[in-house]
TrEMBL record:
Its cofactor is Mg(2+). The lineage of its organism: Eukaryota, Metazoa, Chordata, Craniata, Vertebrata. It holds the Pfam family PFK. The gene is PFKP. It catalyses: beta-D-fructose 6-phosphate + ATP = beta-D-fructose 1,6-bisphosphate + ADP + H(+). GO terms for molecular function: 6-phosphofructokinase activity; AMP binding; ATP binding; fructose-6-phosphate binding; identical protein binding; metal ion binding; monosaccharide binding. SUPFAM superfamilies: Phosphofructokinase. PANTHER family: ATP-DEPENDENT 6-PHOSPHOFRUCTOKINASE, PHOSPHOFRUCTOKINASE. This is Phosphofructokinase, platelet. It comes from Oncorhynchus kisutch.
Length: 695
């Protein structure tokens, strides 16, 4: 039998030997730029390229706006400096102005070389050897004012600062029944204001993309008065992945390859034509054509406007919402969104306390618009959540559905939540009461839900891990040669350890999905020992809590301590439930808000489709679904079809997208490894969205 040909494209097959890469940051500084620079430098060195810092060009290498570069003479000097060093590959991290200037520089490159030859500053051979200039951009801007990407480097950190301020003044707002007006940055782009408004549940937002109508002042004051009467008075992880993709794009570039910008779409790093993106944001109003911005704007409109109760539609449907499993930051934002969207759809919303246990005990009550005010920024689960599964209590749950005339279910939670929906849908043949639309929204710090690349709560947990790792490393700033062993949560799922390790710059991460033995441990110790000899003073090792039943955190700590004697000492830290608590991150607040709104809209459609002869009857596979993020889109997937994709014994999906990131982490830690980049390399068009008329 002929061997199957390996069609994978591997990173190590792309050689950087003989190439030079220059990396610069330009324009205003943005958090995350340093991580991008680190990734470019280490990946460039890994493939054998020579990498140059272009200083002042904050970040560790300086970021500045250069007036001289705007002139032809300035660009001629810059070309001369690059040719002298043989730099023909530029990675530019900055805003649209910086990227536009870089593209102009590339277009003028041939003419600049000819001019340098005429002036006698370089010879013909140097011009020939440096005849092609390749440019890849990464957008570094807290404003998120660039089309083609969901989020620019620095935006997430800026959102964190805003939300921290809002959370800090919330108690004063509640205590004194005050209204606070906050001004945020963003220049001509309203992204920071809009997403912050979503994340904190603001009553009003003013942004350039949605100018207020005449008489808005009176409308706003009326709305604030109504809110009071209802009782509601009151680190960027993507940068490393983008840096790696930038180096990959430079290595693959040819004379015909247009300048590109590396962007983030969903959980994918993609390449887009640089100038096409720039042209779309040449006027700030065009930002409304970006899908990410439009989605945020539509969700804000959906949640912010509340008519009088008499003006709302009446669907005559009752929808129940419950949390199942362990608490996850962002659950409350999801419940708030579901309740308010459900009410606007005309449904009567019911809250179930304490998951399926509260369901069969009858802990069910109607929940109103005002009841969920202020829930967005609250951690944990206000409704209460437990791991109880419904299978042993089907009779009582069916009885409660009849008592309260429940017509649809929204289940927000972790692995127990999807198991619960599977059990209820499987019991439809015996119980007609379960023949109602039901949808599950993933919410768990472990991010171990089949059918979704990301879960509500995982981002907050990753922030806790990264923050703690940074603080731990800083604690040893005056200490020579120390290695930290840190244990993370996640059950058998290594997502938190792996992605947290990538963000924190870990040297090694031990997880269940990648088995390891004593020889691997010994090799890792030796690798760290060699790194310590090169001047690096600190090491970071992460271990997922269930990575190996024998190689425990204590065992690994003792092994590293013994084998590292005379070279480094060790400390260990078990992060525990601190990863689960605390206020939700801006991402988890917004993700929970948007995914729950989409789930309720799906429920409304299914209720209409399944309402016949005066009652709801839904028993097809597509009426019991999980709503999850798959690559770049939200998808409803029948839970029955997801069973084959699951390792139920270890409560993890059989295939997990983030495992492809692990070689990247190893490369950045200076290990030699294989990295499959088959998904990379395609230059994609920028998606344009036509604006819709507001209701």
């Amino acid at each position: 039998m002929a061997k199957q040909q390996d069609t994978r494209k591997l990173f190590e097959d792309l050689s950087g030997a003989g190439k030079s890469i220059g990396v610069l940051t330009s324009g205003g500084d943005a958090q995350g730029m340093n991580a991008a620079v680190r990734a470019v430098v280490r990946m460039g060195i890994y493939v054998g390229a020579k990498v140059y810092f272009i200083h002042e060009g904050g970040t560790v290498i300086g970021s500045a706006r250069c007036k001289e570069f705007r002139s032809h003479e300035g660009r001629l000097k810059a070309a001369h400096q690059l040719v002298l060093r043989g730099i023909t590959n530029l990675c530019v991290i900055g805003g649209d102005g910086s990227l536009t200037g870089a593209n102009l520089f590339r277009e003028e490159w041939s003419g600049l070389l000819e001019e340098l030859v005429r002036q006698g500053l370089i010879d013909e051979e140097a011009a020939q050897n440096n005849s092609e200039l390749h440019i890849v951009g990464m957008v570094g801007s807290i404003d998120n004012d660039f089309c083609g990407t969901d989020m620019t480097i620095g935006t997430d950190s800026a959102l964190h600062r805003i939300i921290e301020v809002v959370d800090a003044i919330m108690t004063t707002a509640q205590s004194h029944q005050r209204t606070f007006v906050l001004e945020v940055m963003g220049r001509h782009c309203g992204y920071l204001a809009l997403v912050s408004a979503l994340a904190c549940g603001a009553d009003w937002v003013l942004i350039p993309e949605m100018p207020p109508e005449d008489g808005w002042e009176e409308h706003m004051c009326q709305k604030l008065s109504e809110s009071r009467s209802r009782g509601s008075s009151r680190s960027d992880r993507c940068a490393s992945r983008m840096g790696v993709e930038a180096v990959l794009a430079l290595l693959e570039a040819s004379d015909s390859t247009p300048a590109c910008v590396v962007s983030l779409c969903g959980n994918q790093a993609v390449r887009l034509p640089l100038m096409e993106c720039v042209q779309m944001v040449s006027a700030y109003v065009s930002l409304i054509f970006c899908r990410s911005f439009e989605n945020n704007l539509n969700t804000y409109k959906l949640l912010s406007y509340h008519k009088a109760d008499s003006e709302l539609p009446n669907s005559s449907f009752n929808v129940a919402v419950l949390n199942v499993g362990a608490p996850a930051a962002g659950m409350n934002a999801a419940v708030r969104s579901a309740v308010r969207v459900g009410i606007k759809e005309g449904h009567k919303m019911f809250a179930v306390n304490d998951g399926f246990e509260g369901f069969y005990k009858g802990q069910i009550k109607e929940i109103t618009w005002g009841d969920v005010a202020g829930w967005t920024g609250q951690g944990g689960s206000i409704l209460g959540t437990k791991r109880t599964l419904p299978a042993k209590h089907l009779d009582k749950i069916a009885e409660q559905i009849r008592i309260h005339n429940i017509n649809a279910l929204l289940v927000i939670g972790g692995f127990e939540a999807i198991l619960g929906v599977i059990e209820l849908s499987a019991a439809r043949d015996k119980y007609n009461d379960f023949c109602v639309p039901m949808v599950m929204v993933p919410a768990t710090v472990s991010n171990n839900i089949l059918g979704s690349d990301i879960s509500i709560g995982a981002d907050t947990a990753l922030n806790a891990i990264t923050y703690t790792c940074d603080r731990i490393k800083q604690s040893a700033s005056g200490t020579k040669r120390r290695v930290f062993i840190i244990e993370t949560m996640g059950g058998y799922c290594g997502y938190l350890a792996s992605v947290g390790g990538l963000a924190a710059g870990a040297d090694t991460v031990y997880i269940y999905e990648e088995p390891f033995d004593i020889r691997d441990l010994q090799s890792n110790v030796e690798h760290l020992t060699e790194k310590m000899k090169t001047g690096i003073q600190r090491g970071l090792v992460l271990r997922n809590e269930n990575s190996n039943e024998n190689f425990t955190t204590d065992f690994i700590y003792q092994l590293y301590s013994e084998e590292g004697k005379g070279v480094f000492d060790c400390r260990k830290n078990v992060l525990g439930h601190m990863q689960q608590g605390g206020a939700p991150s801006p991402f988890d607040r917004n993700f929970g808000t948007k995914i729950a709104a989409k789930a309720i809209q799906w429920i409304s459609r299914k209720l209409k489709e399944s309402y016949k002869n005066g009652k709801v009857f839904a028993n097809t596979e597509d009426t019991a679904c999980l709503l999850g993020m798959r690559r770049r889109t939200m998808a409803f997937q029948p839970v029955v079809q997801l069973k084959d994709e699951t390792d139920f014994a270890h409560r993890i999906p059989k295939e997990q997208w983030w495992l492809k990131l692990r070689p990247l982490m190893k490369i950045l830690a200076k290990y030699k490894t294989s990295y499959d980049v088959s998904d990379s390399g395609q230059l994609e068009p920028v998606t344009r969205v036509r604006p819709k008329k507001a209701d």
